[in-house]
Amino acid sequence: MRRQIVAGNWKMNLRFSEAEELLNEIAEGVEEITSKNVELIVCPPFTYLEMAMDFAGEGAFSIGTQNVNEKDFGAYTGEISAPMLKSMEIEYCIVGHSERRKYYGETDETVFRKVEALQKSDLTPIVCIGETLEEREANNHFQVIKKQLENYLFTLQPLDFSGIIFAYEPVWAIGTGKTATPNQAQEIHAYIRGLIQEKFGKEIARKQVILYGGSCNATNAKELFAQADIDGGLIGGASLNAPDFIKIANSFAK
Ligand code: PGA
Description:
Radius of gyration: 17 Å
CATH topology: TIM Barrel
Bound molecules: 2-phosphoglycolic acid
Order of helices and strands: EHEHEHEHHEHHHEHHEHEH
Shape: globular
């Protein structure tokens, strides 16, 4: 059985006291998660990391960040590196989110460098891939996904590649309320797993965790997570509401 993961991406939201309240509610809600197999990850803004680590306590949930710099240390004003995160015992980091690709010029190469930096410091990258609306409408979505994987990430050693958590996030579904249908999502997840199998073999493909992201919420998570190749979700908006976030974590079939 593959790992089942629900990760919350808070993006640039919440003031300190609101973040504290949400963390408190999540910490209390974790007890309501019925399956022992589900891993919960919270990715708050950097400013709330230390507080989040306190609430996460002895592993009730894990903490990730939404970005990292590819360098280790040095004169890079305003940046935060993987060794810094590691020194705080942060475990995960989202890389290549479409908002970072769109607004901050991240490319497949930047994503690759960040993955390398994270793995060097023993953090787990959550790598986002996915097509825009134009790319889907032009029927280019398979090619786009293939390129995002093949260009750089497929040059990783099999062991490093297998350490990545992927999130398929169709850009047209992020924050729009327009979710991919379970069939649409499953089709791409199966395609991604197929590409991984061709490149790295059956064993790695079978174990690779692929999350779905894009308007996944407490209502539609169950049907999405029931798909054969969907191993959980990367949740934006709905992760800012603790009861919804916990309900999503309870959306896996037993
Ligand atoms: P959303 O965001 O759930 O608000 O659509 C998902 C994401 O951007 O990771």
